Fold:
Amino acid sequence: MPICKREGFDLNQKEGKNETFHDNDQVFCCYITKRIFRDYENYFRHVMVINSTVWQCEATGKENLTFEEAVKSERAARKKMEQFKQSLRAPVLLVVEHAHQSAVNTLNMIVAKFLRKRYFIGEEVSVQAKKNATYTVVGVKLDKNMPEPGNGIYEDTDNLLYRLRPNKGDPSAELELPFKQLRRSRLEFNLENLNMFIKSNVSRVDGLLRPKPEAYKQYVTDPGVSFSTIFIGKMPRYSPAKIKKPDAKDAKKQSTLNKYIVADEATAAKSKAKAKSDAKALAEEMERVKREKEAKLVELERQKAEKKAQLMERVENECNLLLLKTDDLERTDQKVLPRYKQIVTLLPEHLLGDAFMMREFMHTYTGLLSGIEVFRQNLSFYEMTRALTAREIAGPLSDILLVLLGTVFDLQKEEEEECAVTYLDRAAQTHEPFWSMAQAAKSHQYAKRHFSFKVNELPLDALTLSEVLRLHLLGSGAIVNEKAERWRVMYRNGYSSKEDPGLELRLQHSHILRILKKHSVYQLKFKDIMTLIRCLMSQILTYSGTINLIEERMEQTAKAKQDLRALVVGENKRLAAVEINRKKITHTHHLELNGVEPEKREALVEKLNKSIAELHAQSDQQHRKHELQMLKLHSQLFNFLVYLGMDRCYRKYYVLESMPGIFVEHSPDSLDTCLEQPPTNKSQMEIRQQAALPKNRKDLRVYLLKLYGEDDKKTKKKAKHSLENKENQEHRLNGSAEPMDVESDPPEAPTHFELLMCSGDKRTCIVHDSRNGQRQRWAYIYKPEEIDELIKTLNPNGLREFELLQELSVLRSLIEQHVKTCPVDLLSLENEAMRKKFIATMESETHRKYGEANFGLPNGTDLNEVMRLHLVDRIIQFENDIYTGDLGRLKVKDMEKWRNDLLGGNYEAQCKLQWGPGGKMEDETGSDNESHESHEDDDGALLGKYARKPYRDPELYLAAPADTESLPDSGDEEGQPTNAVSIPIAVHNMASALLQVEQAIGKRFLKEPYGMKKWDPKQEALKLACDSRLHQWEVSLMESTSFAQVFLHLNILHDCIQWRRSTNKSLCKVCRRGSDPEKMLLCDECNAGTHMFCLKPKLRSVPQGNWYCNDCVKSLGLNNGQNEKDKKQTAKKKRRFIVEEEEDNEATDEEEEENEDGDMTDEEQEQENDEDVEDDGSVASTPSSAKANGRTLRRSRTRPAGRRLTSKEIEEHVQEDDESGRISDDASLTADEDTVEDESDEEKVCQKCFYDGGEIKCVQCRLFFHLECVHLKRPPRTDYVCKTCKPMPQRPRRRHSNMNGDDDRDEEEPKAKRPRNSLRLSIDKSARASNGNNNNNNSSVNNNNHRRSGRRTNENLPLNSAALYDLLEQIMKHKAAWPFLRPVLTSEVPDYHQIIKTPMDLAKIKSKLNMGAYQLNEELLSDIQLVFRNCDLYNVEGNEIYDAGCQLERFVIDRCKNMQLPFRPSDMNGEVEAC
Structure:
């Protein structure tokens, strides 16, 4: 403001600089200039001069300003000049010194171009890829590939490399980056603050612009800066400007203002009088001027407001145009998307999506699926590929279907437990889907009628799967009762029967159900198989358990998102608090520096740096914790299938948890049609310019406001552009200017095909033409650079690509971490060598589990033939188990021929077959509505209603077939060839053979529903009801049309046989053991076994005549008579069997009940025994029975174990027995034994238990012993020496032998090989066994591998072992028994054995009971009392173990009262009376 420096303005002559004022002085203050006056006239003149003078800004040169505006302009200019970067001030002054220019604008342009192309040593810059980090330039060098300039001046600075040092972190971690990757802050360097700095620090000397000496000294001389110290090479040369000196005549001395504002005493009076006369006029004039000025201001404001409104409207329209999201195919600013790697596997492309979804489904819902353990918690890629490429019966495909169908059945059972479900076969409406819903109930009624089980209770394995699945699908969507319908609406999210996926399959894919009636599911097209799998998965998703799981995961996801937002907000607040603390510390430091000696300043600065470093260290530590929490929350959000979104051409992007990688699916299903007028894409230059614009509306609005500024700014900008062009030309002539980089568009714009955009022509459109050969059905990406490229090319303004971009940006770090392990070798089988390698690896990985998937037959064998051969083996084995177990005999003339014919495929019944009600099938037909009427609980109705009704398969109620339906061997997929003539005949033959076996079984050996719970011939009505159910089973068996149906009938019949009554599975009813078979008597009525030494009184020899157990004597009124008539009848019924030795059988919970004390009825005991035998899956055929003195007697074989007599040998023995009319006293000897036992039982008395039947003999003392008495599992291979004869006895080794040899393989066996415990299904354990193997001893042998056997040694045994076993098991299973199950260890309780001298625990009591250590009931109860006395002695009242012991003892007292056993409680329950 130069006018303020004129003489006489700053200070009046009469006022001194040091004049003081008092508090009570009256003064006049000018707030504009902050001046105080005593005299009003001086004050008035001062104000008048300020208001009437036109001012100019000294810094910017702006004119026509008021005083306030000039002061404000100077202050703003000074602030901008202070923002100019410190490290650039020295280079600016050096350029000004060397440029020798006279024009200010030219100098500004030269300096600006010089600074734009260079970064200087010591300057702080940022890197383009790392926006939050700052670096300091520590060196500049030339690129190795570029030659050095000859004159030493580096004009082409783009090829220079800058060495950078990070301001934070490790100082030694330096970088070398090119010029293009470095950036300066716009606030620190722009044309405006550069011009301010030059104007303030440059003066004109002899017509040239030179740096001011004080500025040059401050920024260049004192720091010792030269061009070589801040940059490489020499200073560029500039053409000097012509010097124009001002004329002397033009120089005028600046006038003074004294005449206007300074007055002496002579003129003071005149001035005062004149001032008073002019005051009024001046006031009026000022008022007028003021009004005019206000009017102008109002008009100016109005115009400015209008202009601003127009500008804002234009800016908003432009923002909407740039930021509005529209459909991707209608955009004109698309970039070229990258091409992905195509997935090439053994699976066809149309199955890949369903296969991946199936694997992801099984991986996601592992905890919900039943039997998923067969896949070790996850289905591998090799197993998935084999399932959908190989034709196998018991392969991975069967396991997948078993898991899914079993899960559906389990969920159905859970629903039935919550609400009773009844299926109705009548609908209010007759059109679809209601007609099919009504007919679906026929399938449930069919299963109840012919099998007497519900569909979800049928035995399920790889062989019965096809039929059970068919019945399930036929029954899906059936109408249920009103109560069940309301329950489903409430707990299954409004689900109703018409929404059942199985009903949809019945209506749209009925051909699959028709094929399943005659073929197995493994013979379907893989496309149809995937349809079935999708249906089962969809059904699982409709149940309440699955819905609850999904809702729980959604709640967890919502909570994780909420926690994530809260964590981000908290981190931002923490960073703001850290910044505030840093400013406080810095402010405190500056206050402390005031008035401090220079020597102490360094200490204060060091203290400040240390405080800031500690603050940053704490902040970094908390930030690392924040990042860990963020990663944890992101992981919670990313723990299952993630659908990322779609791009412009409707390609879907997935991230699968079971398969690392980003998978891209280009589905053939078009979501819309081709556009009539496809948009033309912009040039790539325009797209790049648009991409450089701010992405958020606020920043974009600011940018556009600057761009669309006022007209005068545009004019100035054009002038600057023209001046810049002129300077560029001048510099180019001088050889020192740098050429401008002009980007040009590519010669050819990308086509619609390359952009993956709609071309408008259906025939060539890659978006809407599903048959286009360039489409990739499935592709994948996994590299970080591929993900970067995808993110860069996605359009943020497209509706679909914006969502995809958002998901990729949010989950990018987790996705990159997840896809690192993408199995590229499994997804890219591009040549034959890779395919062969994959097949070999797949075979090796799955061979152990699925090596016998077709039961030993070679690959490629017809699946019907595989099932037929295995069914033959199963039927023959089934018949053999029944015959050798004394459960029945075939009514044929030649059993051996019958078997050989069945094996050879030339089946001959050897008799006339009769089945069904009345012994044959009637030709009567009935209406559809009458054939499957529901009478589930009324046996009388069952007899009367079903006896003469015709058989109707539920498949008959399907809708009419479509013309396009195909057989399993048609179409473009390979199928299993079938023989339409031979298969029905083979199925009928197998059904006939199974019918013969069923009719050979004694009715008293069948259990519910085909037999009585307890056999009683007097109950005629119950017997007729059971026979009627069995007749319906026979009817459906003989109507079977596939091998799967025959397998289903076989398994149902197998499960309904009382295998515990088989002589191969006889256990002692007293001790529950199967040892000592030669000492076991078999009941002639129920085949139940009892040791002779377990009877009261015990028997020394086998009794004469028929012998019946106590249960049969009591319930049936039989007598153990010794008359001649009984002997003759016994002689006619006598049968001889060869038996094997078996290990002791450990009794389970159900088998440990005994009937002596009335604790359990006979029916309950038999039922529990049946369940125990059923869990074994088949009958153990190792033990059998023989005859001694006319009595059935169990004894050991003399031939090698594991050998089974042929049918011919057995028939010979039976014929010999029938011909013999004499009952020998020594009937225990069999007819086909090679040698006769020379030594009598009395001579082989065991020296341990003193019972006869010693098995091994000491070579020294010649005494006999039982194997179990000397703790041996089997006879020794060498000579045996007893303990007495050995000088140093050795402890016998305990070996857990695997007698079956299949335990190691069971864990790897597929679902068809072992039972599904979660479903309680009867799974065929022999599905993988080779022909001829005995499948009935697996469970019995395996259960006995890990137990100790022993025998009670007392002569008189008043020990109720069954009741005590039951009591002990109940005690050990009690929830409070956990402290007393095992001995107390000294390591856990060091002083326990110092206080308790006689420790006791429940495991020891059970061991003593198993070893026969107890002779009386009181002995066992005394040990139980000892457990509680020890607990009371060691523990104090209120202790957790004390309370558990008190609770458990009360339970024991109650049980002993009910069982009438004596028990004396301890002091813990002293108030309770003793039993």
